[in-house]
User: Fold these one by one.
Assistant:
Number 1:
Amino acid sequence: MLAFSTPLKRVNPAKAVENQCVPIACADCGIYNLCFAVGGDADLSLLNTLVKNRRTYRRGEPLFSIGEPYRAVFAIRSGSVKTSVLTDDGRIQVTGLHIAGELIGLNSFVADRYSCEARALETTSVCEVPFDRYEELVAQVPGLQHQLLKIMSQEIIHNQEMMLLLGKKRAEERLASFFINLSRRFKRHGKPAEELNLSMSRSDIGNYLGLAEETVCRVISRFEEESLISTQRRIVRLLQPARLQSISKGGPSAAK
Amino acid sequence: MLAFSTPLKRVNPAKAVENQCVPIACADCGIYNLCFAVGGDADLSLLNTLVKNRRTYRRGEPLFSIGEPYRAVFAIRSGSVKTSVLTDDGRIQVTGLHIAGELIGLNSFVADRYSCEARALETTSVCEVPFDRYEELVAQVPGLQHQLLKIMSQEIIHNQEMMLLLGKKRAEERLASFFINLSRRFKRHGKPAEELNLSMSRSDIGNYLGLAEETVCRVISRFEEESLISTQRRIVRLLQPARLQSISKGGPSAAK
DNA sequence: CGTATCCTTGATGCCTCTCAAGACGGGTGG
DNA sequence: CCACCCGTCTTGAGAGGCATCAAGGATACG
């Protein structure tokens, strides 16, 4: 427990946007409204001047690439973004899938260059928080750095779960975990928890879960046969979330 | 580049201990001496009072367990520690291997409970930085939070590499990556870069790399046949680091 | 309406896991 | 000092899950 932390308040994402505040969060954690973390109105206006820098990216367009000089942190306002790293011979590992209200670009904080690439999965609107201006923010807003610590801490926990998934789970468990995790995040962001818009191809999903595109298809088909889900292209409806949850944890359906 | 950051100075680990400073770092980044990051002598003495809390753990003894209330960050003075997470049905994923000079427990910053367990791989001496006292430290030492951001950022980058390894690399590439990464870290900490003391069983290595114990053995045997390494139990000598490096990146020896 | 992209399904093969048994080494007690 | 024991390491044989290769079908877009 952090006694020195300003208590955080979870707010309606729509309201956050309406208030011109930065919706700031990371994969697998809720929307935290920085304005609340920060407090005063003076700070709030400062924040606004810093995050006015908005931009829209089209499907497939990179927000940043590996090795590119570090320039900004990105808060996703709408749409979705994937981040990925590469082997030298071109194999891709998608390391993150980020939806509206989440934050990307923090992982390159230590270096002066981006350590992964980020691409819009669909038409995506972001707030860019330029790094030089960010310094002003940190200097004047005492709660900010601690807030970032929390967000990064949450991301590390999420990464640990991904390592468990990639290192120890079988294909069905991976897909089930993927759907359950996504469902939880959608719910937090005020979207329907049982009707997911994946907004990414089977191939991307495979690259994220450490599977081949075809395996993703096959498992999805199997899930449909068992009436666990129903799909239309990239729309997935969770028909039996409880059983999916059970499978994701290595339940009997996955026949350990 | 972070204009607001106090420049960091890499120091000799032995000297750091001698000076009673906290060697503070994370997997895959060098030793940073907090005293330098912090500056003044007043701070330094404060730091000393905070990190006096030392303790030794024996092989297999847990530093903390999953779900346990968060109480401290640990800086490893000597020895080594593994961190791991579990599936509900008992499968283990080792998420980190930490050697002297590195820092663990940061990932649970956000929650009030530990999200992974940590166990000593051998007799291990650590500085515990109790969390309640840590607050004093943060309040009085302006550079500290930013320093932690950097360390956590570095850990996220390392996690990304692990995801690439677990999701996309074959067994030989994983072992090669493991040895090369360990070698680099040993070197940074003033230990021989080509004679590694793994201090962990084949089983632990397997759990770290997402492989079965037997596969680890087989790959190691193959590496020995090709004179890439030589081994005596848990001591590994890198005979051809360059080729290992090549293999780790998906080079020809691994026959993509 | 054609084309490109994505999705789906089948057949085949291989990498790695699993099961199994034995070897090695270090520690302990006689 | 030696014999024993237990954990760890090693190697083999077999099976299985998933990748790969291949081809056809569906959907979106210009």
Number 2:
Amino acid sequence: MILELKQLFGAIFEEELIHEIAKVGTLREVPEDYMLIDIGEQIKGIPLMISGAIKIYRENANGDELLLYYLEEGDSCTLTYTLEMNASKSKIRAISELPSKLIMIPLKQMKVWEQQYPSWRNFLFRSYQIRMDELIETLDSLAFDGLEKRLMNYLTEKKRVNGKDELQITHQNIALELHSSRVVISRLLKKLELSGKIQLRRNEILMV
DNA sequence: ACATTAATTGTGT
DNA sequence: ACACAATTAATGT
């Protein structure tokens, strides 16, 4: 665990802090498609991503969900940190997109480190900014882009995160993540296929 | 190997 | 949005 920490964070954190993280943090390895936390659950800590990717969702009272953004290696979910500071119930859902490794840090420790380590404060601040930028990006896309463009963004982002050209997903699932309906997604995908941007197969989309 | 069923995708209104 | 057809995968016999 120390080794992995140094690899990713050696340049950012002091030696001492790295050892503290290793001491109080718990390493978790999860398979693909594993729900790390659901809406309404008690927040126990903040994740530091070591490898893999995690999808962060928001869901409204009707059970409609929407993909907000991905967490990737070196990321942390600092938005949730600030969101959950007071109300300790999760407002988001986190599901792994890939098999992932991460370190959970108890909320308690974070407050202590904020006082003690400038590098930790910087990290929080920087991470917060990155997360916020991503959020604004998806917000812009929601507000100003048509669904077709949004779908294309979704596909290219998924391709980037997975590092593969073949995306294994059903139209129904895409519809859920973009908060649309299956039929609409099917039609748009067909359109994209005809324009040569993708190829459709069962349970799979090939990016070109 | 075959039949049955469920899941996924395509299309017209 | 809804209904239905067509295609493919999964399962049991």
